[in-house]
Amino acid sequence: MATPIRIDYYTDPLCSWCFAAEPTLDRVKEHFKDRIELHYKVFPLFDDVREVMNDPARLWTIADRYRIVSKKTGVYIDNKVWSIDPPQSAWPACEAIKAAERQGFAAVDRFIKLLRNGVMLDGKNIARREVQMELASKAGLDLPRFEKDLSDPKVHDQALADVADARRENVESRPTFILANTQGDKVLIAGPRRFSLFKEAVDALYQEQPEI
């Protein structure tokens, strides 16, 4: 059997475009199963929410962005978190992802989906530690271990390493998927895209990759 195609997924759980891409990502995981190896790479949207709210170059506030993305994609998104309890930074949730990642792919995969649903559907401030613990419990994580890892300064370093990888790969938007085979061939897919594009990319990368 050929080595799985590696997919590095650059994302932020606060990103509405990433949320809109979830149905396609779920289909990719279900269709390809062990033919792909998915790796989550965090790419925080902002250090401080004021950067976004006060910068005219960003075009809209995040609440407006949620509304527009929902309208454009047909994926329901509730933007109430930005009027009720807005996250002050994108980093805490991204660092929580790196902490959950230490418990294996299945654990972090469940946790990320709950983070996204929490903020996009339920209006939860996923930057808050108590919300992260609540969602980690729902994801079936080892809570004492997760809480300890959340306090480990190395999770910040791991998030920084993902950002450095994004810069090195010239990633500019979220979501961005970089598919690669063992021959070093790569395909970059940016934004919510149709399933057929992923299928074409995986099939093409497999054709260039010898079986072992």
List keywords for this structure.
single chain; 212 residues; alpha+beta; 4-stranded mixed β-sheet; 4 strands; globular
Please provide the ordered H/E string of secondary-structure elements. Answer: EHEHHHHHHHHEEH
Computed CA radius of gyration, to the nearest angstrom: 17 Å
Total helix count?
10
Q: Report the uncertain regions.
A: none
**What is the tally of beta strands?**
4
* Overall shape: globular
- Overall pLDDT level: 94
Strand order of the largest sheet: 2-1-3-4
Helix and strand content put the structural class at: alpha+beta
Helical fraction: 40-55%
* Largest sheet: number of strands, sense, barrel closure: 4 strands, mixed
Q: Strand-residue fraction?
A: 5-15%
Q: End-to-end span in angstroms?
A: 6 Å
